[in-house]
C-alpha cells in the first residue's frame, strides 16, 4: 500500500471516530439538561403538590416526556443544520439525514435514562445535572471508546453496550459514515472498470 493510501485510510478512521465522538459529547449534555426542571420539581415539593391537587402520575410523566421530547427534537434539528453546512469528506447529505434520524430515535430512551437518574439522585440541580451527564458519558462515550480501542470490536461488548442509548447512537453514526465512505470508494473504482454499473458492481469487485 502506498503512503498516500495509508494516509487516506488513517484519515477515514479518524473521521469515522470524530463524528460519533462529537455526538457523544453534545447529546449527553443536551439530554442531561432536562433534569434541571425535574430535579427542581422533585426537590422543592412541586411534584407532591401536583399529586395532592389530583394530577395522576402517568399524566405527569407523559406531559413531561412530550414537552422534553419536542424540545430535544428542536435541538436535533439545529444540530442537523450544522451538519449540513459542515464539510466532512465522504459524508453525503443522505448520511447526515440518517444520522439525524438516529438522533431522533435516541431521544426517547435517553430521556428515560435521565428520568430514571433524577429519581435516584438527590441534591440541587447542578449536582443532578453533573451526575446525569456522567451517566450518559460513561454509558455512551466511554463504552464506545472501550469497544473501539480496548476490546478491538468484541462482539460480546458490542451487544452488551447496545442497551445504552448513547452508545447505540455513536455506533450507528460510525457505521453510517463507514458505509457512505465505502459506497463512495466503490463507485469511484467502478468508474474505471469497463461495463461496470451499480447493478453488477458487487460481481466485478469482491470488496464491494
Automatic annotation (TrEMBL):
<feature type="transmembrane region" description="Helical">
    <location>
        <begin position="97"/>
        <end position="122"/>
    </location>
</feature>
<keyword id="KW-0472">Membrane</keyword>
<feature type="transmembrane region" description="Helical">
    <location>
        <begin position="129"/>
        <end position="150"/>
    </location>
</feature>
<dbReference type="GO" id="GO:0140359">
    <property type="term" value="F:ABC-type transporter activity"/>
</dbReference>
<feature type="transmembrane region" description="Helical">
    <location>
        <begin position="156"/>
        <end position="179"/>
    </location>
</feature>
<dbReference type="Pfam" id="PF12698">
    <property type="entry name" value="ABC2_membrane_3"/>
</dbReference>
<feature type="transmembrane region" description="Helical">
    <location>
        <begin position="20"/>
        <end position="39"/>
    </location>
</feature>
<feature type="transmembrane region" description="Helical">
    <location>
        <begin position="60"/>
        <end position="85"/>
    </location>
</feature>
<keyword id="KW-0812">Transmembrane</keyword>
<keyword id="KW-1133">Transmembrane helix</keyword>
<dbReference type="InterPro" id="IPR013525">
    <property type="entry name" value="ABC2_TM"/>
</dbReference>
<protein>
    <recommendedName>
        <fullName>ABC-2 type transporter transmembrane domain-containing protein</fullName>
    </recommendedName>
</protein>
<feature type="domain" description="ABC-2 type transporter transmembrane">
    <location>
        <begin position="19"/>
        <end position="178"/>
    </location>
</feature>
<dbReference type="GO" id="GO:0016020">
    <property type="term" value="C:membrane"/>
</dbReference>
Amino acid at each position: 500500500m502506498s503512503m498516500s493510501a495509508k494516509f487516506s485510510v488513517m484519515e477515514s478512521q479518524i473521521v469515522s471516530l470524530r463524528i460519533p465522538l462529537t455526538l457523544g459529547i453534545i447529546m449527553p449534555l443536551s439530554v442531561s439538561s432536562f433534569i434541571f426542571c425535574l430535579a427542581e420539581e422533585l426537590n422543592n415539593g412541586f411534584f407532591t403538590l401536583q399529586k395532592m391537587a389530583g394530577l395522576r402520575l402517568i399524566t405527569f410523566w407523559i406531559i413531561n416526556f412530550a414537552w422534553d421530547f419536542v424540545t430535544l427534537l428542536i435541538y436535533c434539528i439545529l444540530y442537523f443544520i450544522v451538519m449540513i453546512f459542515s464539510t466532512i469528506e465522504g459524508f453525503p447529505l443522505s448520511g447526515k439525514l440518517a444520522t439525524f434520524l438516529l438522533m431522533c430515535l435516541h431521544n426517547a430512551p435517553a430521556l428515560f435514562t435521565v428520568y430514571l437518574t433524577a429519581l435516584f439522585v438527590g441534591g440541587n440541580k447542578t449536582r443532578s445535572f453533573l451526575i446525569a451527564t456522567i451517566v450518559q458519558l460513561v454509558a455512551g462515550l466511554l463504552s464506545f471508546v472501550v469497544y473501539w480501542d480496548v476490546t478491538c470490536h468484541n462482539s460480546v461488548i458490542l451487544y452488551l453496550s447496545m442497551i445504552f442509548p448513547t452508545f447505540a447512537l455513536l455506533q450507528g453514526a460510525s457505521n453510517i459514515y463507514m458505509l457512505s465512505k465505502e459506497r463512495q470508494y466503490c463507485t469511484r473504482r467502478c468508474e474505471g472498470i469497463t461495463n461496470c454499473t451499480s447493478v453488477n458492481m458487487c460481481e466485478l469487485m469482491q470488496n464491494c
